[in-house]
Design a protein that fits this description.
With 156 residues, this protein is α+β, with helices and mostly antiparallel strands. It has helices at residues 7-24, 142-152; strands at 34-36, 45-46, 49-55, 61-66, 75-77, 89-91, 100-105, 112-120, 123-130, 138-140. The chain is built from two helices and ten strands. The strands form two sheets. Strands 1, 7, 8, 9 and 10 form a five-stranded antiparallel beta sheet that branches. Strands 2, 3, 4, 5 and 6 form a five-stranded antiparallel beta sheet that branches. It binds zinc ion (ZN) (2 copies).
């Protein structure tokens, strides 16, 4: 059984593989990703920050500034957030609509996620972030990434 699949082992492998995969691809760590609200289409990124309105686990309203650079995890906030707690809400600062989605949970910790769109070349594709403070999970569908890279391959 040379091709036997061991689900547990391959999960970890996949996880690491996808990291390597990302590094090898056009979207390198540190790539600036312009972010947009999925509701009103306004840009969430401005200069070197990605600004979002949040509701903390204890119902405080505040703001967070995230890094718009891929795989650079920085967070500044004007309210107290404790690591390991899930934010109650993340909202667009322009239209005030919630960015939380119910159809996708964090692959690492199972928390809810928020979704916004990132522009890569001429496309806007969904990008999910985990609501748990301190969890550095985010997603960019590999299919989306691959498609973009294929479309851009003439630039190489
Ligand atoms: Zn909006
Ligand atoms: Zn998570």
């Amino acid at each position: 059984m040379a091709k036997q699949k061991n689900d547990e082992a391959s999960w970890e492998k996949l996880f690491w593989k996808s990291h390597k995969y990302n590094e090898r691809k056009r979207l390198k760590t540190g790539t600036y990703l312009h972010a947009f609200c999925q509701h009103c289409s306004k840009e969430l990124t401005k200069d070197d920050i990605l600004l979002l309105d949040v509701t903390s686990p204890d119902d405080k309203l505040g703001h967070v500034e995230l890094s718009p650079f891929l795989n650079i995890f920085e967070l500044r906030t004007d309210i107290i957030l404790h690591e390991g707690k899930e934010l109650k809400d993340i909202r667009c600062p322009h239209c005030n609509k919630s960015l939380i989605v119910l159809d996708r949970n964090c692959d690492l910790c199972g928390s809810h996620t928020a979704k916004y769109l990132v522009r890569i070349s001429h496309k806007k594709i969904p990008f999910h972030i985990c609501l748990k403070v301190g969890c550095h999970w985010h997603s960019l569908s590999l299919e989306d990434e691959e498609q973009i890279i294929l479309e851009e391959s003439d630039e190489w």
